[in-house]
Design brief:
This protein is an alpha+beta fold and about 260 residues long. It is about 25% helix and about 25% strand. An eight-stranded mixed β-sheet has the order 2-1-3-4-5-6-7-8, sandwiched between helices. A five-stranded mixed β-sheet has the order 10-9-11-13-12, with helices on both faces. It starts with 12 loop residues before the first helix and ends with a helix.
């Protein structure tokens, strides 16, 4: 299959996954050539390299005939307010550089996140580290999740006092967990919950859907619970909407994290 082949809702999951992996590779090649890490001033925290990678990724995605919702360039190719209005259309939710501040400072913990959604929700996702060692997480609805091609499942549930929790933003005082990690890339951080490296993830700020959509499917397919802390739908298709994702290896840990956030 060529990179320019049209892919529709009737296409196989394998074809969609192949396409997303090709696009992720384009992002890896593009960011490797990036030299300008100045802030654009157009969006908060947007770097010139974000735009460079976004332009390459969006150009590749358009060849497949998909709708696109990107952090850097907004919505194009569809007009649905939420996934229920997509009918037979496929939309890819894109974060071209999740963790771009890390990238701007030479920290390898940053990724491209791609999530193909249809009217039923997330269908196929790829979260691929943009720097070496290029760790890749992938998931297909109803078929599982993988890290570098190996199937993953959530880790063993621990007592809350023994947990290590990933956070974004300042954590709450005296949370009761053992340790926390603030790594700076929500998609990759959530995937660490999916593969059992972390026991949970707490968003102490808020995120656009592109920040976590790819990891959402990876978490679900690995058996990790993931919700919005305030009970909202996690898949809005409005560029302005923000959510507060919380994920955990057990219901008890998830409930404790939600209570801390509220």
């Amino acid at each position: 299959m060529s990179i320019g082949a049209s892919i529709t809702r009737d296409s196989s999951d394998e074809a969609i996954l192949y396409a997303l992996r090709n696009v992720a590779h384009i992002a890896q090649l593009t960011i490797a050539a990036a030299r300008d890490w100045s802030l654009t001033g157009v969006q908060r925290g947007q770097y010139a390299a974000d735009v460079m990678v976004n332009d390459a990724v969006v150009a590749a995605l358009r060849e497949f005939g998909w709708g696109i919702l990107s952090e850097e360039s907004g919505a194009s190719g569809f007009d649905a307010a939420d996934i229920s209005g997509l009918a037979d259309q496929l939309v890819v939710i894109v974060d071209p550089v999740d963790g771009s501040t890390n990238a701007s400072r030479g920290i390898a913990w940053h990724a491209v996140s791609l999530c193909c959604v249809d009217a039923e929700g997330p269908r196929v996702a790829v979260v691929a580290q943009l720097a070496q060692p290029h760790t890749e997480y992938a998931a297909v609805r109803g078929r599982g999740a993988w890290k570098n091609g190996e199937a993953i499942r959530r880790g063993e549930a621990r007592a809350f006092a023994s947990t290590v929790i990933g956070v974004s933003g300042p954590p709450p005082a005296n949370p009761g967990w053992w340790q926390f990690r603030a790594n700076g890339a929500a998609a990759l951080d959530l995937c660490l919950v999916a593969d059992g490296s972390l026991d949970g993830y707490l968003d102490c700020d808020e995120h656009g859907v592109w920040d976590y959509a790819g990891a959402l499917l990876v978490c679900r397919e690995s058996g990790v619970g993931i919700v919005d802390a305030f009970g909202r739908d996690l898949l809005p298709l409005n560029h302005a909407d923000r959510r507060t994702p919380v994920a955990a290896a057990s219901t008890d840990i998830l409930d404790r994290l939600i209570t801390l956030r509220r």
